User: Which sequence fits this backbone?
C-alpha cells in the first residue's frame, strides 16, 4: 500500500468532481491510497498571484505544503497549476535559507512551519512512474483501439524546465505513452505544446484572447482528426470544456470535442460509464466518443 | 625616537611580479626602500616555511607575489601558492602571529604601478602593526 | 676556498647618482668569501667585461656577483663573460641595484644601504650556487601528424617539402577529412574537391610522408624530441598490397546501407570507398553490414576480386613509430541538432543539416549535385536556413562556430544561381562575415535576392499533408511573429569537438578549453603550441575555424614542429628539479602537482621513487613544495639558499 | 667530543657490531652504521662526523642501546654529536621545508601569545590552576598541518574527556610551549633551553603537582631532559596510558569491548622510558591484544624522529610495520604517540609500493580508542 497526500485545488472539487472520483477509484486497484489534506486553500495560481506579490504567494503555497507535509507523505496534485505553485514554491524555499526563514516567520502566526521534506508530485507521475505503462496496458478490459486521441500536456507541469526537470519540454512523450497504453492512438497535431488559453490570468482579464487560443487548439485537433482531447490539468480541462460552450455562445462556433482527463480515458478503457466518470457534469457531451467506442465494438 | 621603519621581504615570481618590479624601476616610480626582493621561479615555489623563517628572522612583513590567477607561467603555480599561504596562515593563527604581516599579491609584468602602490600600502599597513615581536631578541 | 668577485656598475649616473658606489664597494669587500669588490662606470661595456674576465683568470675568482641593472637586461652578457673566462656561467648572480634601488628611491644613504643588502643577498646565493651544465637530448627528426583533413594534409606537406619525414595517421579509410565532404567553398565558390584532391594525391606520392589510413594512434609515450607512438592499423578485410582499386567488389556487393559519409543522404555498399577520388583508393569491408561476415552467406566480393585480395578474417596490425614532435589535427564533428527538439530534426523529413545539404550539393554526392527534398525527392522551391543551431546557445554550446553564416550564404547562393526562381530565407541573429572577401560575398547574396530574416527561429512544425516545414519566428526587424511555410529547412549546425577528442587529450596530456576543444599554450602569442612541449595543434581540433584559417594554422603548426625536429639535439635548461632518491618516499605527491607530467614513479630496489624527466621539467618548483620531506630540490633555488638570502636580507640595518 | 665519548661510555665499544645489526635504519640503508660512527669518534674524526649526513639519519630509537653489550648510550652520543655539529654550523634537515622546526623555534619567544586552546569545546572541563596539568604538546600545530589524514586534536579532546571522567579538570595552559624535544635531538640546545625555561615557569605558575602528557616525547623530555630545570620541585610526570591504566585498576572507569588490537610501542615510551605494560593493560581492558612479532624492547620504529630523519627507508620501515600489524589479524593498530600515528598514516598516503590490502589497517591513538570505548558515553 502506497500513500500520498492529495492536494485537490479549486477546480476539481467545484466543477469536475469526476476527475477526483475516477482517479481515486483507479488508484485503489493499484493499491495506492490518497489521504486528504485538511484545510487546504487555493494553491494559489502560479503565474498571476506570484507576479503581484511573491511573498504572499509563497506564504500561501508554503502553508499548503506545510499542512500536506504533516501527513508524512509526498504530495500529489491533479492540476498543472497547483503543481506549478507547490513545486516552484518548494524549489524556491528549499534553495534559499533566508527566504525560507522569512516565510516561516509569517507562517508561525498561523502555527505552521514549512519544512520542505515532502516531494511535490503530479498525478501523471503516479501513473507513468509508480504504476507504469505496462501495468496500465494489462489493466485495460476494453482497450480503446481505433480511437484517435490528441493529448494536451499544458504548461506548468513542464516549464520552467530548469525547475521541473521532467525531460523534454519541447516534445514530451509520457502522456502519449499512457494514451497508447489504453489502446487508443495518440495523434500529432499542430502546436501541440501551445497553451490552452487559460493561463497567466488571461481568462479573467480578457476572455477574447483566451478563447482565441482555445479555438486555435480545437481547430488544430479537429483538422488532425482527433476524436477527443486528453489532458492532465484541471485548468486546461476547464478551458477546453467550458471554453467550447463560451465559443458557441459568443461566436456561434461549435466544436463538440469531448474533453477527458487522462484518468477518465483510462476509466473508459476499463468500462466505466459516463456517470461514473463524471462526464455528465461537463459542458461538452462525450456521446460522440462513446458512440465511436461502442460502434467500433459491433 | 626614530620612526619605526619596517623590514619587508618579497618573494617575486620570475615571470610576472619580478618584471612588474622592474617596470616600476624603469618608470622611476618611487616607493619606500623597506623592501628586499627575492626572486623565485614561481610563486608556487614558495614554501610556507620560507615565510615563517622570514618572520623568525625579524621581517616585519612578507609579501608573496605571482602572476594573476589564470596567467601563471606554469599553469597553476599561483593557485598552489594561494593554498600554501592559507595553510601557513592557519599555523600563524595558532602561533598568535598577525596574519596581516603576510600578503599574497598578483602583480603582472605590466603592473609597475600596482607593484609600487602595493609596496607603499603594505609598508604603511605594517607600520601600523608595529615591529614584529619575533624580531625583538632576548 | 671560495673567491667571490663583486662588480658594482655605476650605469653612468643611473646608479652612481643615488648610490655611493665607492663606499659600497668598500663595505662589500669585507663580506665573507668576497675577495674583491670593484666599481666601474659601465660594467656591460667591453672594458667592463674585460675587467671581470681578467680577474677570473688572474685573481682566481670562482664566483661572481654583478651589481647593476635587472638580470633581464644583461644576465646573459655576464654569463658569456664567465664562460669565456672558463668559469661555469651558473656561478653568477646579479644584484638588481638599478631597477630595485637607484631608480625607485631618492635618499642616498638608505638606497646605498639597500644596495648593500641586495649585494649581500646575491653573495649569499652565489656562494651556494652549483655549477650546472645544460644537458642535451637527441631529437628524432620526424613528425607525427594525427588527422589527415586539410589541416593535417597541409602540415604534412609543408614539413615533407622542407625535407623532414612525416608519419600521417588518419582514422577514416581515406584522407581528405571534412573538407572532402563539402561541395563548394566560400567566398570564391571553388569546388572543394578541385582544390583538395591535388593535395591528397601529393600526400600519397610524397616519399617523405608515411601514410596510415583507417588507423588510430592508441598510445603515445615519451617527451619532446623522443615520442613513441603505437598505431593500430584497422583491418580493411582485404590485403591492401594486392588491391588495385578496380572497384568491381563495390559494384557487385548486394548490400546497401545508409552512408555515413553522405550524412545518411545516400547509400553505400558493405564494401566501399568513401568517394571516387579516395586516397588510398582501397575499399573497406563494413563488418556490421557485410552478409558474409554477419550471416556467412554471399561472399560475392571474394568471388569477383580479380586479384584475390579479399580476406574477411584479416586482423588489426600494430605499428610503433618514433617521432620528435606531434601535430594534432583531429578536426571536428558537426553538432547533432536532435537535442534542439523545437526544430524537429529527425522527426520532420524535410529538416536537414548544413552538412547534409553539402552532400546534396556535391557534384559527386548522392544526388550528383541536385538539391532535392528527402520526403519526396522534389526540388524545393522555398528553402529556409536556420542559423546558430547549437551555437551561441546556453543550452548547447556557448561559442560561435565561425563558419555557419558563411556556409549558409554560400549554399543559398549556389541554389539561387542554379534555380533563380527559388525563394531562400536565412534566419539569423547576427551575420558574421569577418574574413577576407566575406562581407562582399554577403552583399552579393543580398543582391541576388536571398532574404535575410533577423530572428532566432522559435520552432518548426510540419504541415502533415505536404510535409512542408513551417518556421515560426519573431521577425525582429518587423516586430512581428511570422509563420513561413517552406519546402525544406536547413539547420546551420556548428562545430563540436570530435567524439574521441577526450581520448586524444588524455593520451597526450593536453588541456581542454571550456568549449571542449584542445587548449593552445597562449591564446594570442602561442596559438599553435600546447602546454606539452613538442605537441602542436592545427585546424578545428583547437576550435572552430574556416578553411583559410585552418590552412594558416596548419602552416604554423608545421613551423612549430620543424622548430623541434630540425635540430639534431635539444639543449635542456639545467635549472630544473632534482630528486634525492635516497630521501624519496615514493608517495607521488610531486607527480600529482606536476602540470607537465614530468615526474613518474620508478622502482628502485624494493622501493618506488620519483624520477624527473629533465626534458619535460620546466623548473617551476611546485613539486619541491609538494614534497613533505625535502626529497626534491630546484637547482640553485634550494631551501638553504633561500634561508641564507633571508638572513642576508634581514641582517642589514635600516 | 671527548666529553661526549666519556658521558655516553662510547669508549667501552668493542666494535662487535651488535648495534648495527639491530639498527632498523642500517637494515634498509647501507650507508648507515652506528658501529662505524662510534669507531670514527674514537679515532678523533670530529669534522668527518659533523659533516656526514648520516649523523642526522639515526632515529635515536634506542634499539641499539638496548642490545649493546658494552652499554654504550648511542642515542645520547648522537645527540651530543649533533649539538656539536649544530654549533659548527651544520643543520639537520626538516620535513615540510623546515616549517615544523620553525614553529618550534618561534615558540621560544617570550612575548608570544598563542591561540593554542581553540580546540577546547564546551563539553570539556579545564582549569587555569590546579593539581593536574595536561601538557598538550604540538597537537594544535599538527592539526594545522596534518588534518588531511589524521585528527590530532581528537587525542587532546579524548585526554581531557578521560580526565574529566575521573573527576579531574586539568590545567591546560595557553602559555604552554613546545617541549623542545625535536630541537634538542637535532642539536639546537640553546633554543631547547629557552623553551624548557618558559615551560617550567608556566608549570610552576599553574601550581600543578602532576603533569599528564599524551605524547611520549613530551613525557621523556619533561621527565628526563627538564630534570635540571625542575630541580627542587616535586612534580610527578605521567603518560596518559599510565593514568588510564590506573583508573581502570581502581574501577574508576570501565571500557567497552572495542575489538582486536595490536600495539606499536613508541620508542620514547618503551625503550626510553620503559613503559610497556600500562598501554597493554588499557588495551586488554577494552579488547583482545595480539602482539606483533617485534614488540616491547624489540619493537620497530615508526621511521622518523624529530621531523629530521624522514627518508625513503622510513617509508619502508613503516610499510613493513603495517604489514606486520595487518598480518596479526587485528582490527586496528593502536599506538600511544601522535607522531607514530602521523608517520604510519603518512606511509599509506597516495602511492604505496605494495597491494593496499596488505597495509589496510586503521591506526588509532590509544587515548582516542579508550575514550571511544568509555562505558556510558
Assistant:
Amino acid at each position: 500500500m502506497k500513500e500520498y497526500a492529495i492536494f485537490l485545488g479549486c477546480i476539481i472539487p467545484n466543477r469536475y468532481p469526476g476527475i477526483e472520483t475516477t482517479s481515486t477509484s483507479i488508484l485503489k486497484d493499484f493499491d495506492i491510497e490518497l489521504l486528504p489534506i485538511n484545510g487546504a486553500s487555493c494553491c494559489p495560481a502560479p503565474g498571476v498571484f506570484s507576479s503581484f506579490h511573491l511573498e504572499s504567494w509563497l506564504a500561501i503555497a508554503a502553508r499548503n505544503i506545510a499542512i500536506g507535509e504533516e501527513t508524512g507523505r509526498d504530495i500529489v496534485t491533479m492540476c498543472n497549476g497547483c503543481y506549478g505553485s507547490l513545486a516552484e514554491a518548494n524549489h524556491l524555499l528549499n534553495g534559499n535559507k533566508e527566504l525560507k526563514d522569512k516565510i516561516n516567520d509569517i507562517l508561525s502566526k498561523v502555527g505552521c512551519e514549512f519544512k520542505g521534506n515532502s516531494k511535490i508530485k503530479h498525478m501523471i507521475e503516479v501513473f507513468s512512474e509508480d504504476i507504469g505503462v505496462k501495468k496500465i496496458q494489462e489493466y485495460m478490459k476494453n482497450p480503446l483501439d481505433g480511437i484517435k486521441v490528441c493529448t494536451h500536456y499544458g504548461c506548468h507541469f513542464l516549464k520552467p524546465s530548469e525547475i521541473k526537470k521532467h525531460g523534454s519540454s519541447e516534445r514530451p512523450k509520457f502522456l502519449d505513452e499512457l494514451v497508447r497504453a489504453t489502446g487508443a492512438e495518440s495523434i500529432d497535431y499542430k502546436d501541440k505544446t501551445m497553451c490552452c488559453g487559460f493561463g497567466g490570468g488571461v481568462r479573467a482579464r480578457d476572455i477574447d484572447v483566451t478563447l482565441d487560443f482555445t479555438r486555435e487548439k480545437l481547430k488544430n485537433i479537429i483538422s488532425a482528426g482527433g476524436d477527443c482531447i486528453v489532458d492532465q490539468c484541471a485548468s486546461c480541462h476547464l478551458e477546453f470544456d467550458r471554453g467550447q460552450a463560451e465559443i458557441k455562445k459568443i461566436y456561434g462556433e461549435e466544436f463538440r470535442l469531448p474533453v477527458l482527463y487522462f484518468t477518465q480515458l483510462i476509466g473508459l478503457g476499463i468500462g466505466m460509464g459516463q456517470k461514473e466518470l463524471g462526464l455528465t457534469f461537463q459542458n461538452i457531451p462525450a456521446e460522440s466518443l462513446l458512440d465511436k467506442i461502442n460502434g467500433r465494438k459491433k | 625616537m626614530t620612526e619605526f621603519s619596517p623590514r619587508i621581504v618579497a618573494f617575486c615570481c620570475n615571470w610576472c611580479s619580478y618584471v612588474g618590479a622592474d617596470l616600476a624601476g624603469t618608470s622611476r616610480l618611487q616607493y619606500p626602500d623597506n623592501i628586499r626582493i627575492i626572486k623565485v621561479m614561481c610563486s608556487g615555489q614558495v614554501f610556507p616555511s620560507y615565510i615563517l623563517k622570514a618572520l623568525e628572522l625579524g621581517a616585519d612583513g612578507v609579501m608573496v607575489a605571482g602572476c594573476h590567477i589564470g596567467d601563471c607561467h606554469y599553469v597553476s603555480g599561483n593557485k598552489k601558492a594561494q593554498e600554501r599561504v592559507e595553510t601557513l596562515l592557519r599555523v600563524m593563527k595558532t602561533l598568535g602571529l598577525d596574519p596581516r604581516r603576510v600578503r599574497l599579491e598578483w602583480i603582472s609584468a605590466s603592473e609597475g604601478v600596482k607593484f609600487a602602490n602595493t609596496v607603499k600600502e603594505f609598508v604603511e599597513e605594517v607600520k601600523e602593526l608595529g615591529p614584529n615581536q619575533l624580531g625583538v631578541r632576548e | 676556498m671560495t673567491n667571490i668577485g663583486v662588480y658594482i656598475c655605476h650605469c653612468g649616473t643611473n646608479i652612481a647618482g643615488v648610490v655611493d658606489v665607492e663606499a659600497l664597494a668598500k663595505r662589500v669587500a669585507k663580506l665573507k668569501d668576497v675577495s674583491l669588490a670593484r666599481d666601474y662606470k659601465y660594467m656591460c661595456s667591453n672594458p667592463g667585461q674585460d675587467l671581470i674576465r681578467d680577474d677570473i683568470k688572474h685573481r682566481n675568482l670562482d664566483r661572481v656577483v654583478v651589481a647593476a641593472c635587472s638580470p633581464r637586461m644583461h644576465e646573459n652578457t655576464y654569463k658569456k663573460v664567465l664562460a669565456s673566462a672558463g668559469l661555469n656561467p651558473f656561478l653568477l648572480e646579479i644584484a638588481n641595484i638599478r631597477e630595485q634601488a637607484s631608480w625607485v628611491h631618492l635618499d642616498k644613504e638608505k638606497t646605498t644601504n639597500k644596495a648593500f643588502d641586495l649585494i649581500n643577498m646575491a653573495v649569499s646565493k652565489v656562494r651556494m650556487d652549483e655549477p650546472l651544465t645544460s644537458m642535451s637530448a637527441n631529437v628524432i627528426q620526424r613528425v607525427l601528424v594525427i588527422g589527415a583533413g586539410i589541416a593535417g594534409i597541409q602540415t604534412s606537406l609543408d614539413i615533407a617539402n622542407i625535407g623532414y619525414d612525416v608519419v600521417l595517421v588518419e582514422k577514416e579509410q581515406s584522407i581528405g577529412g571534412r573538407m572532402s565532404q563539402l561541395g563548394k567553398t566560400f567566398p570564391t565558390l571553388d569546388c572543394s574537391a578541385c582544390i583538395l584532391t591535388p593535395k591528397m594525391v601529393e600526400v600519397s606520392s610524397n616519399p617523405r610522408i608515411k601514410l596510415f589510413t583507417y588507423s588510430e594512434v592508441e598510445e603515445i609515450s615519451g617527451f619532446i624530441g623522443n615520442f613513441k607512438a603505437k598505431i593500430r592499423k584497422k583491418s580493411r578485410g582485404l590485403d591492401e598490397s594486392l588491391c588495385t582499386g578496380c572497384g568491381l567488389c563495390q559494384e557487385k556487393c548486394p548490400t546497401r546501407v545508409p552512408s555515413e559519409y553522405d550524412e545518411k543522404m545516400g547509400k553505400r555498399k558493405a564494401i566501399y570507398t568513401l568517394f571516387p577520388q579516395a586516397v588510398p583508393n582501397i575499399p573497406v569491408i563494413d563488418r556490421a553490414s557485410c552478409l558474409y561476415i554477419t550471416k556467412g552467406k554471399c561472399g560475392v566480393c571474394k568471388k569477383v576480386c580479380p586479384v584475390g585480395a579479399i580476406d574477411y578474417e584479416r586482423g588489426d596490425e600494430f605499428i610503433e613509430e618514433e617521432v620528435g614532435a606531434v601535430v594534432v589535427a583531429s578536426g571536428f564533428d558537426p553538432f547533432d541538432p536532435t537535442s534542439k527538439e523545437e526544430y524537429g530534426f529527425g522527426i520532420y523529413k524535410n529538416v536537414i543539416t548544413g552538412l547534409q545539404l553539402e552532400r546534396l550539393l556535391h557534384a559527386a554526392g548522392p544526388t550528383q549535385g541536385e538539391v532535392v527534398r528527402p520526403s519526396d525527392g522534389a526540388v524545393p522551391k522555398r528553402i529556409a536556413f536556420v542559423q546558430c543551431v547549437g551555437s551561441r546557445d546556453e543550452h548547447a554550446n556557448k561559442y560561435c562556430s565561425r563558419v555557419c553564416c558563411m556556409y549558409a550564404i554560400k549554399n543559398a547562393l549556389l541554389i539561387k544561381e542554379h534555380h533563380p526562381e527559388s525563394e531562400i530565407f536565412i534566419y539569423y541573429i547576427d551575420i558574421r562575415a569577418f574574413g577576407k572577401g566575406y562581407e562582399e560575398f554577403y552583399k552579393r547574396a543580398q543582391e541576388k535576392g536571398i532574404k535575410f530574416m533577423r530572428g532566432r527561429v522559435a520552432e518548426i512544425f510540419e504541415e502533415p499533408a505536404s510535409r512542408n516545414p513551417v518556421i515560426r519566428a519573431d521577425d525582429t526587424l518587423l516586430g512581428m511573429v511570422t509563420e513561413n511555410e517552406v519546402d525544406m529547412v536547413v539547420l546551420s549546425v556548428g562545430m563540436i569537438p570530435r567524439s574521441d577528442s577526450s581520448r586524444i587529450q588524455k593520451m597526450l596530456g593536453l588541456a581542454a578549453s571550456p568549449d571542449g576543444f584542445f587548449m593552445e599554450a597562449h591564446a594570442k602569442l602561442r596559438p599553435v603550441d600546447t602546454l606539452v612541449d613538442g605537441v602542436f595543434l592545427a585546424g578545428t581540433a583547437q576550435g572552430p575555424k574556416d578553411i583559410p584559417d585552418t590552412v594558416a594554422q596548419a602552416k604554423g603548426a608545421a613551423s612549430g614542429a620543424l622548430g623541434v625536429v630540425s635540430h639534431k639535439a635539444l639543449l635542456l635548461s639545467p635549472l630544473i628539479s632534482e630528486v634525492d632518491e635516497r630521501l624519496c618516499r615514493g608517495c607521488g605527491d610531486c607527480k600529482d602537482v606536476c602540470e607537465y607530467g614530468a615526474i613518474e614513479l620508478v622502482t628502485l630496489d624494493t622501493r618506488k621513487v620519483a624520477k624527473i624527466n629533465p626534458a619535460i621539467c620546466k623548473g617551476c618548483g611546485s613539486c619541491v613544495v609538494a614534497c613533505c620531506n625535502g626529497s626534491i630540490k630546484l637547482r640553485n633555488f634550494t631551501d638553504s639558499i633561500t634561508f641564507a638570502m633571508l638572513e642576508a636580507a634581514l641582517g642589514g640595518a635600516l | 667530543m671527548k666529553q661526549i665519548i666519556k658521558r655516553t661510555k662510547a669508549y667501552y665499544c668493542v666494535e662487535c657490531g651488535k648495534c648495527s645489526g639491530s639498527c632498523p635504519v642500517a637494515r634498509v640503508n647501507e650507508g648507515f652504521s652506528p658501529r662505524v660512527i662510534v669507531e670514527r669518534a674514537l679515532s678523533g674524526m670530529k669534522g668527518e662526523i659533523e659533516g656526514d649526513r648520516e649523523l642526522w639519519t639515526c632515529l635515536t630509537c634506542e634499539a641499539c642501546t638496548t642490545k649493546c653489550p658494552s652499554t654504550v648510550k648511542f642515542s645520547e652520543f648522537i645527540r651530543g654529536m649533533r649539538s656539536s655539529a649544530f654549533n659548527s654550523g651544520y643543520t639537520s634537515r626538516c620535513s615540510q621545508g623546515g616549517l615544523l622546526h620553525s614553529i618550534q623555534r618561534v615558540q621560544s619567544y617570550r612575548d608570544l601569545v598563542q591561540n593554542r586552546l581553540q580546540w577546547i569545546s564546551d563539553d570539556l572541563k579545564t582549569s587555569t590552576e590546579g593539581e593536574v596539568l595536561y601538557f598538550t604538546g604540538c597537537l594544535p600545530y599538527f592539526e594545522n598541518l596534518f588534518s588531511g589524514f589524521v585528527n590530532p586534536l581528537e587525542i587532546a579532546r579524548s585526554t581531557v574527556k578521560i580526565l574529566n571522567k575521573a573527576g579531574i579538570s586539568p590545567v591546560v595552559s595557553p602559555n604552554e610551549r613546545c617541549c623542545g624535544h625535536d630541537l634538542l635531538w637535532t642539536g639546537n640546545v640553546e633554543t631547547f633551553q629557552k623553551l624548557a625555561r618558559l615551560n617550567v615557569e608556566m608549570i610552576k605558575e599553574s601550581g600543578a603537582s602532576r603533569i599528564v602528557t599524551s605524547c611520549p616525547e613530551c613525557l621523556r623530555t619533561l621527565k628526563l631532559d627538564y630534570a635540571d630545570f625542575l630541580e627542587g620541585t616535586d612534580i610527578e610526570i605521567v603518560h596518559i596510558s599510565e593514568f588510564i591504566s590506573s583508573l581502570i585498576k581502581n574501577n574508576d572507569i570501565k571500557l567497552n569491548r572495542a575489538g582486536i588490537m595490536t600495539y606499536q610501542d613508541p620508542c620514547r615510551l618503551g625503550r626510553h622510558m620503559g613503559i610497556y605494560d600500562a598501554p597493554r593493560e588499557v588495551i586488554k581492558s577494552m579488547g583482545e591484544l595480539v602482539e606483533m612479532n617485534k614488540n616491547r624492547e624489540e619493537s620497530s620504529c615508526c621511521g622518523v624522529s624529530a621531523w629530521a630523519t624522514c627518508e625513503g627507508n622510513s617509508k619502508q620501515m613503516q610499510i613493513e610495520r603495517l604489514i606486520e600489524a595487518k598480518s596479526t589479524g587485528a582490527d586496528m593498530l593502536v599506538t600511544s604517540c601522535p607522531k607514530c600515528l602521523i608517520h604510519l598514516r603518512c606511509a599509506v598516503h597516495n602511492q604505496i609500493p605494495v597491494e593496499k590490502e596488505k597495509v589496510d589497517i586503521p591506526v588509532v591513538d590509544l587515548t582516542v580508542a579508550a575514550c571511544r570505548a568509555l562505558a556510558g558515553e
Observations:
- The radius of gyration of chain C is 33 Å.
- The mean pLDDT of chain C is 94.
- The longest helix of chain C spans residues 108-128.
